[in-house]
Amino acid sequence: VPVNVSRERFERLVVEALVSIPEPLRARMENVAVVVEEWPTPDHLAGAGLDEEDLLFGLYEGTPLTERGVVAEAVLPDKITIFQGPLEEACASEEEIREEVRTTIVHEVAHHFGFDEERLAELGYD
């Protein structure tokens, strides 16, 4: 049975997950916006290589730090989007949502640091 939490509560779970990332890594997360959306759009799903019936918990959009040049360029912020609806649909308790939000945040932040899907799967964050 899906669990529904308020948007405010869900956003607090996202902040808790971000704060749980060790400070040395958080300090290197420059120019990254973390936002919450209800559901992914068809474009989000297509960008992640998923079909419309697939669940997408989070999405990183940007240029990983490992692919940036030495000279700082003026660029738009990278964006990590956490999707509340799919997470609620997949979880049976608020505690499970908390755990999945943290896993999703770690997964998307890892993309910011240059980890690809294969490496994340090896680490258990698939």
Our estimate of the beta-strand percent is 5-15%
Instruction: Tell me the major beta sheet.
Output: 3 strands, mixed
Query: Which series of helices and strands comes N to C?
Result: HHEHEEHHH
Radius of gyration: 15 Å
What's the arrangement of strands in the largest beta sheet? 1-3-2
Tell me the number of strands: 3
Overall mean pLDDT stands at 88
Q: Structural class from helices and strands?
A: alpha+beta
Helix content: 40-55%
Count, helices:
6
Distance between the termini: 23 Å
What overall geometry do the principal axes of the alpha carbons give?
globular
> Spans of 5+ residues with little confidence (pLDDT < 50)?
none
Polypeptide structure, described:
The chain is of the alpha+beta class and 126 residues long. Helices cover 44% and strands 13% of the residues. The chain has helices spanning 7-19, 23-27, 42-47, 84-90, 94-112, 117-122; strands at residues 32-37, 58-61, 78-83. It has a three-stranded mixed sheet with strand order 1-3-2. Helix 1 (7-19) packs across helix 5. The protein is globular and about 50 Å long. The protein starts with 6 loop residues before the first helix and ends with a helix.
